[in-house]
Amino acid sequence: MKQKIVSGMRPTGKLHFGHYLGVIQNWVKLQDEFDCNYFVADWHALTTKYDNTSELRQNVIDVVADWLACGIDPEKSTIYVQSLIPEIAELNVYLSMTTPQNWVERDPTLKDMAKIMDLKGNDSQVSHGLLGYPVLMSADIMMLNAHYVPVGIDQVAHIEITRDIARRFNNIYKTDFFVEPQPKLTEIPLLCGLDGNKMGKSFNNDIKISDTEEVTTKKIMRGITDRSRIKKDDIGHPDLCEVIYKYWKIFGSEEQIADVKCKCEAGTRGCADCKRWLASVINEKFKPIREKREYYANNVEEVERIIKDGSDKVRAQAAENMKKIRKIIKMY
Ligand code: TRP
Ligand code: SF4
Q: What is the pTM of this model?
């Protein structure tokens, strides 16, 4: 029997290249070797955006359409939505009882999220739900007893808490029912945004998987290069080229990278030409993905059906596990 994988993403809307390289590509690779279960964490979206739900459903669809376009195959992997599995909420209740308060208060990611909420001028306090973020995440993972959780580096602290929560539950109820799940990281270096900062939707420095070729090119033309290079025949320094050369190293072939470096250092290719070429390489690479993305945008009912089928399947497993868990705790 294949080992189980569970991972999720919050429905932040259309996904960007950072998601693709950091997480989705990894998910795609794991599909043959593992029993993969990928879900949209719409409850987790509410931990910070409970007062702004008008786009939530559309965002769920957009995220799943992006996954499908990138090669998550519903024949191999199970795709579902968190809120369609009420058993996860029930498990969350039980885990909330066994998790010490200071474990959630120590969560480093919580501090970042609280900061982001502050920045956005959200006048509310950190909610009970946001404090419980890592417990709900543990319920997601433990609901299916996953062995591995493929995530970006920013989520590893959460998975550590999940391991602790699983171990503590097992100790308290003298059981070995829950697996202690392990994070599974990608080796791909983090892709920075076009301004050199962390890539993110809210920083307006990302390239979306679903962007058109024109938009992609326009965005890349704004990317930061070697700031000391002013005239186009100035000698350049690829290693000081803060964004564009880094992108080349991720998206270019070996020959292309060598050519870019050589012409840059010799001052024989200007940055504008270098960027235009990069844009065409990237657009070429994403062409098939974008065509598929377009297909799903025009066939939303197919996306909805995939979500429903996957959620039904997960719900059956979750219900079965939940029966066992109740029995372990000696509940009804
Ligand atoms: N916290 C994750 C993120 O922000 C999303 C998530 C929720 C998740 N539950 C999970 C990831 C369980 C992996 C496993 O991206
Ligand atoms: Fe960067 Fe290319 Fe300009 Fe060199 S030529 S500084 S690699 S954008």
A: 0.93
